[in-house]
Amino acid sequence: MKRCKTKGLCCGAGGAQMFKEAEKGNKEINVERTEDALETDAEIIATGCPFCNTMMTDGVKNFNKEDEIKVLDVAELIANAAEL
CA separation (Å) from 53 to 2, 26, 70, 71? Predict the structure, then answer.
């Protein structure tokens, strides 16, 4: 994604963003971050944090892409790979 590593953008959920009312702005942070992920044309969005998983899942639902894009934890990817 264009915003990664030192230029990363946190979804904010670990900082309690998902538990409070939205702040003033143009869009929700999870929608902004999901847009970054969708621009990659990925079929799976991998997360390493349960809060990110929730925020990205909600973002994917916001764009009505839940049938096309899966949001999986890194542990789920490893478990799925082990089954192959």
Answer: 19, 22, 10, 7
